Each structure stands twice: as structure tokens, then as C-alpha cells.
Amino acid sequence: MNVRPDQLQSMVAKTLYPVYMVSGDEPLQQMESLDLIRSFLRDEDYSEREVLDVDAQFDWQRLLDEAANMSLFATRRIVELRLPSAKPGRQGSQVLKDYLSRPPEDTVLIVNAGKVDGSAKKSAWFKAIEQTGLVVQCWPVPVEKLALWLQQRFKKRDMDADNEVLAYISQHVEGNLLAADQEIEKLYLLLGPGKITYADVAEAVTSQSRFSVFELVDVLLGGNTKRAIKVIVGLKAEGVVPVVVNWALAKDIRLLAKVAQDTSSVDFNLKRSGVWQSRIALFKSCLSRHSQRSFNLMLKRCAYIDVASKGLVDANVWDEIETLCVRLAGTTKSLRR
């Protein structure tokens, strides 16, 4: 049987399967689906758990050995097979088919896999799991459905977020559900249950001491160099990965470069690009300080920082980020186009 992550809660307790497979490239839904299955199995007295991590050197005989081994205390067991590539290879495929042809009693197999492509779905091992057990495939939430997903997550915490809050988070997380859930949890800790507006969120973010990448971008757009340096220091102290900061910078600089092509329709182009009304003034402030040429040069620096963050060139990544941030927060309007 195949179910979506949002269907699992109502389906998981109906039948006990010998095998469960959770696959996909959306980490939050995958993690929560696995937790839900493990919790159900614990309630069914599956108290032992053995984890097998599949890599290039993995011996697939271990799975068959685990199936053959009787528990020392005659307890029910979970064998969790972590298959990041979702490609078990020839030997693994055969072992999985052999295992599922005679699933051992009092043992449940959980396959935690990466994204299953079209060819894998046609394979004998995947079809064997579908026919024998329960399959949960976790896909990213489409952009047009993200606001609804966020609204449901807020409701789980007894919070009622208005449309502006939903749009603000949607724009910042860009489909990253894990980041979105962390933002909602942060707002819950700061504001508690009840109705929340964008003004509540802005006040909470401003008053908290924790630095964020999103705060950095807004500070830069507004031209507050002093505050930007302070935020960068905070991000470094918190161990934020530089590539995440560079991603956030490149995303908005790319949009600024595009909008700067036609300054006669700035408001229209920003709204059409998904910029929420509350941030338009920040973007316009930045556009007034820089030319399209300057934004394009900044994008080239983002590309260089990306290469540096991967260790492909010898450079201090945080120094490069700070230099770029100072440039973005400042003004280069005097440069010739």
C-alpha cells in the first residue's frame, strides 16, 4: 500500500505490516513519518531495534542474518535499513526479495530510503515492498500549497497566523519544510498560542537575541551596515554554515538585478516576484543605492563565495561574505553602468 505522509496518522494503526518503507527527498516529512511508525511499533511491543547503514562496503548478508537471529529475550524487534541512495544494487535487490518472500515472525523491517526514481519503482524489490508492506513517499510541498501546509502546522500549536505571516515564512523558507517548522516553533516559544499577525512576528524577531539569516538580508536591504556586521558575528558564533548565508544573499540579489532592469515598474515587478508588501520598501531602498551592473557584480561574488565554501579556492569565506554584505548595505550608485 502507498500512502502520503499526511495520511499516515490515520492509516498506521489499522494494520501491522512486516515491512515499512519511507522514501523521498523531503527530510521533515520523512523524519516525522519514521517517528510515527516507530511509535506505533513500540506500542505493539517491538522493543528491540537494530540499525543497518547501507554503504558501498555493506554486506547484505547481515540483513538475512538479522532475520534469522532469534532475540535473546524473545522480544519483538525492529530492523531499520538505511538506504540513502534508494538503489540496493543487484545483491541488495535479491536479498530484499528473499527477505520479503518469507518475512520473519516478530520482526518488522523499516526501510529508510532516499528518493525512489522511476526505474526503481519498476524494480522487483520495490514492488515486493509495495505488495508486502506500507510505502510512504515524501515529496516537497508545491509552492502553491505551502501556505496551507504552514497554516496546518500553526494550528497544531493552537496558533492562528494571518495571511501576511504565512506569506512571510513561505518567501523566506522557499519550500524547506524543516526550516519552516523551526520558524513556527520559534514563534510559538516567543508568542505562545493564539492569533498572530505580521506585526507580532516583526516585534518578536526584533526583540529576540538570536540572529537569523533572514534578519541579515533585511538589514542589508535597509542599508544598516553596523547592524549587519553584528548579525554576521552572531551567525558565525552560532555555527551557521556559510553556504546558507550565501544562498539567502544570492536569492535576493538575483531578484534585485532582475527588477533593476526596469525601474519604471518596481512595485509591480516586486509583487509579481512574490515579495510581500511589508518588504517592498526594503527592496526599493536597496534599488535606490545600486545599479543593475552593481547587482550583477555582487552575483559574481556570490558565485565566488560558493566555490570558496566548497574548498575549491583558498579564501576566508566569512571575510568574503562580510565584504559582500558591506557592499550590499552601502551604495554604489556612483558607478557607471
Describe the 3D structure.
The chain is α/β, with parallel strands linked by helices and 337 residues long. 59% of the residues lie in helices and 12% in strands. It has 17 helices and eight strands. The protein has helices spanning 5-11, 27-43, 61-68, 89-101, 118-121, 124-132, 143-156, 163-173, 177-191, 198-207, 213-222, 225-237, 242-259, 266-272, 277-289, 292-309, 317-329; strands at 2-3, 19-24, 46-53, 76-83, 107-113, 134-138, 159-161, 194-196. Strands 1-6-2-5-4-3 form a six-stranded parallel beta sheet, sandwiched between helices. A two-stranded parallel sheet has the order 7-8. β3, α3 and β4 form a beta-alpha-beta unit. The protein is elongated, with a radius of gyration of 25 Å.
Summarize the structure.
By secondary structure, this protein is an alpha/beta fold.
- Measured distance between first and last alpha carbons: 60 Å
- Largest sheet, order of strands side by side? 1-6-2-5-4-3
Poorly predicted ranges: none
CATH topology of the largest domain: Rossmann fold
Task: Bin the helical content.
Answer: 55-70%
Shape: elongated
Q: So, the CATH homologous superfamily of the largest domain?
A: P-loop containing nucleotide triphosphate hydrolases
**Main sheet, how many strands, which sense, barrel?**
6 strands, parallel
